Amino acid sequence: MTISAPALVGRAWDDIAQGETASLTRVCTPNDLIVFAHASGNLNPVHLPGESEQETGRTAIAPAMWCGSLFSAVFGNRLPGPGTVYRSQALRFHARVEAGDAVVATVTVREKLPGNLLVMDCRLEKADGVLIADGVAEISPPQNRLVTDGVVIPELTLVPRGKFSRLLEACRGLPAMPTAIAAPTDENSLGGAWEATKEGLIEPILVGPEAAIRAAAEKIGWNLAGVRIEATADIHAAPARAVALVHEARAEAVMKGNIHSDEVLRHVTKSDGGLRAGRRISHAFVLDIPGHEGLMIITDAAINILPDLMTKADIVQNAIDLARAIGIEEPRVGILSAIETINPAIPSTVDAAALAKMAERGQITGGLVDGPLAMDNAVDLEAARTKGIHSTVAGRADVLVAPNLEAGNMLAKQLVFLSQADTGGLVLGAKVPVMLTSRADDEHARLMSAALAVLYGHWRRTGRSRLQEMTP
Question: pTM for the full model?
Answer without folding.
Answer: 0.71
